[in-house]
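Per reviewer request, we include the raw input and output of the structure prediction for the construct analysed in the revised manuscript.
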Amino acid sequence: MTDTTLSPSLPRVSLGLSDIAILRHDVRGLEGRREPFRLADERLSGRLGATEHELRRKEAGSAGLAARVLESVFTVETSAGLGAGFAGWVADGTLHVVTAAHVVSELGERVTLERDNGSWGAEVIGRDARRDLAVLRVSGLPVGAAVGARRGGIASAVIGTRQIRWR
């Protein structure tokens, strides 16, 4: 019989060789059962991390997108009523706003653009009733107006497409 100490804090136990062999077999069996749990833990940790990342991305994306869009939105006030307009581009230091043609009545019409931080005068310089689009030239440059493109920049119209003419 072999005397084996399992731990200094535990009482001494006398085990025979067959007892030790049985214990080693049991330990190997338990170690084999541990691997599927480790793999499942890895998979769950990965899924949890991916879900947390996706939630952070969605939260940041929605709030950021809403803030950027709101920077470009104006209320268009005409003699006939109200409509909406969106900052389109800056050309020669002047903001151009795109709105629906049914919001404004004719070229040269004077309208007022409003937003939380002020109001600005604008003139209708382009109108296409068939496509229901109009372009307004703003007097002054509203602070913080987010624009989609610069005239002649990346968002320019494709050659050969019909466009609204402005003066």
